[in-house]
Design brief:
Layout lengths: L5 H26 L1 H18 L7 E8 L11 E7 L2 E11 L4 E10 L2 E3 L15
Antiparallel strand pairs: 1-2, 2-3, 3-4, 4-5
Length: 130
C-alpha cells in the first residue's frame, strides 16, 4: 500500500506557482516601456535603412514614451533622430497602429523649440510627414 506524501504535492504546487510567476514577469517585460522603446528604435533604424540612409549618417536615436500619443491611430513611443550632417535639428518618428508603419512626424525640434512646418532647409524632412 502506498503512503500519502504531502511533500510531493507541495512541490508540485510550488513548481506551478513559480512557473506562473516567471511567465507573468516575462509578460510584464514584453509589455513594458523599455521593451517598447527598444523595439521602436530598431524599427526606426530599419525604416531609415529602407529610405537609403546608412547607420553612419545617424548621430543618435532616442526614444521616449508619450502617453498622450497612445491613441487608436498611433503607438505611444516616439523616436527622435539626429543626423550627423544636420545636428541642430531633431526629427521625430512615430508608429501608426493599423498599418504598423513608421512615419516621420512633421514636428521637429530646432534648439529647444518645437516646430511643425515643412521647409526645404531641413535636408531630412519629407513632404508627406504625419
Amino acid at each position: 500500500m502506498k503512503k500519502y506524501d504531502p511533500g510531493k504535492r507541495l512541490k508540485k504546487v510550488l513548481g506551478i506557482v513559480m512557473a506562473g510567476g516567471v511567465l507573468a514577469l516575462c509578460a510584464v517585460m514584453l509589455l513594458s516601456k523599455p521593451y517598447q522603446s527598444w523595439v521602436m528604435e530598431h524599427k526606426v533604424k530599419a525604416h531609415l535603412k529602407e529610405m537609403a540612409y546608412d547607420e553612419s549618417e545617424i548621430e543618435s536615436i532616442d526614444t521616449t514614451y508619450e502617453h498622450k500619443r497612445n491613441t487608436s491611430r498611433t503607438k505611444p513611443v516616439i523616436a527622435e533622430v539626429v543626423f550627423i550632417n544636420d545636428p541642430e535639428h531633431t526629427y521625430r518618428y512615430i508608429e501608426l497602429r493599423q498599418k504598423n508603419k513608421i512615419k516621420q512626424m512633421c514636428e521637429y525640434k530646432s534648439g529647444n523649440v518645437m516646430k511643425s512646418e515643412y521647409t526645404e532647409e531641413r535636408p531630412h524632412m519629407i513632404k508627406n510627414c504625419y
